[in-house]
Structure formats: C-alpha cells, structure tokens
Amino acid sequence: MIFSILFLTSRFAYSFDYFFQGTDWPDLCNQGTKQTPIDIEADLTVKILSNEPEYSWIEFHMQELGLQANTDGGGYKFLGDFGSMTMYQGNLAIMSTKLVNFHFHSPSENYLNGSQFDLEMHVVMEDEAKIYSHAVFGVLFKVEEGAFNTFIDKVAKAYYGNMIITLAEAFTSLQVKNYLQFSGSLTTPPCTENVFWIIDTNVRKISPEQFNFFNRMWAGNEKFAGGNGNNRMIQPINDRTVTHFIGFANHFGYIGILLGFYLL
C-alpha cells in the first residue's frame, strides 16, 4: 500500500517517466502528426544551397552564466538567459529567439540515417514573434576514444556545484550554416507541436569517460526506468519535409557535406 502511494505520488510529481520510452504518454501528450523525435534520412531531405534565394543561416549571441544543473524528474537541465539566436535569409532577419534552457538526452532522441547517437543536447528557445510554440536547436554527440570536449566537461562538473558556463563553448562557430530543419514537437509531455526544429549536422565528439557521466544517470542505471535512457521513442515522420541547408555553394563543398551526412 505504501509502495503504491509513493509510486503514484512520484508519477504525479514528475507527470511522466521513461519506463516505456513514451509509448505510455498518450494521455499526457497532445495528439498530432508532427511529433518529435524522428529518423532523418539524407536522401529524402530537400537540399538548399547557399546560392539559392530561400537559403537561411543562423547566428547565435551567447553569454556566460554561473550555473548548477537541475536534475528534477530525471532530466539534466540548465535554466537561464543564455542569449539569442537570429535566422537570416541573406542579410534579412526572418526569426529572432531567446535561449531559455539547454538539457540532455542519452541516448539521442533524433536519429540520422537510422543511427542513434550517444548523447543529444537540446537548446530550447522562445520565438520572439510567437509564430512557433518553441524553437529547439539539437546537437548530437558520439563517443570516440581519445576525444575530450571542454564544454561537456564543464556541464558534468556543474552537477557538483556552481560552474561558469557559456553555450558558445559547444560551438566551433556561432554562425551555423549547415543544418537540418523540420516542424515537430516537444519531446516530453505535453509534446506541444508547432516547434521549429534545427539539427546541427556537425556531430561533436566526447570521451568514453565524459559519456559515462550521463550513462550512469540513465541507460546505465537500473534504478532509472529499469535501465532505459531518457529518450522518447522515434515518431512517424508522416508527410513532413526535412530541409537540409548547405552553406557551401561550390560543387566540392556540397559533395563533402553530403558524404559526411551519409556516413553518419
């Protein structure tokens, strides 16, 4: 009886869990045909080169903040006013957002060409024009022996105390010109749709030790959802278009980017 009360209290407090990877969320999620995460197939994307009029590129402005991780409900989240993102077509700003949190899922929620990654970071933004419910910038990470990611190192240390963190350390450039874009949803209840999704095609590398920090919390922890990760299962793509914006108009740059995407 006591166990049942505690179990129900826990589910009420957190609203959802990952015991069934989100398959038991229909009563908590908005129903729709544009849910996230999805599996993105390179050969089915619409490719737009930088010399085409509809090509768009992204610029981030970020600031440092002293932060400690928020681990409520089995997540790993950082809250704050991290800066802004502007999307441009040429020199014309077509979207402006405010960065409000970033958090992590392991293993990754979104797939590329049927492949799942070791870790995924979501940078959640508010659309200043309120055309979209949210905008989310997704960054994928894979484990590689000998790799070391300075940003992830700080993110892990923030679990134990306040750390000065800037999202800029996660980027090689704050101008993102190669990315995937699609319409989707939040990946946790209430799974709100009309989310403007951006997936960076630049997959970052982390060390096995850095990955273990996240793995010990989720997929490598039998006490967390029976050893599942904190990732929602893949959702049907339905009739959605995924656009691949490619920031190099020359032939060789285009082939190189496509080859890298296909090999992911």
Automatic annotation (TrEMBL):
The chain crosses the membrane at residues 242-263. InterPro entries: Alpha_CA_prokaryot-like, CA_dom, CA_dom_sf, Carbonic_anhydrase_a-class, Carbonic_anhydrase_a-class_CS. Its EC number is 4.2.1.1. Keywords: Lyase, Membrane, Metal-binding, Signal, Transmembrane, Transmembrane helix, Zinc. It catalyses: hydrogencarbonate + H(+) = CO2 + H2O. SMART domains: Carb_anhydrase. The keyword Metal-binding applies. The keyword Ribonucleoprotein does not apply. Residues 10-246 form the Alpha-carbonic anhydrase domain. PROSITE patterns: ALPHA_CA_1, ALPHA_CA_2. CDD domains: alpha_CA_prokaryotic_like. Pfam families: Carb_anhydrase (PF00194). SUPFAM superfamilies: Carbonic anhydrase. GO terms for molecular function: carbonate dehydratase activity; zinc ion binding. Its cofactor is Zn(2+). PANTHER family: CARBONIC ANHYDRASE. Belongs to the alpha-carbonic anhydrase family. Reversible hydration of carbon dioxide. This is Carbonic anhydrase. The lineage of its organism: Eukaryota, Sar, Alveolata, Ciliophora, Postciliodesmatophora.
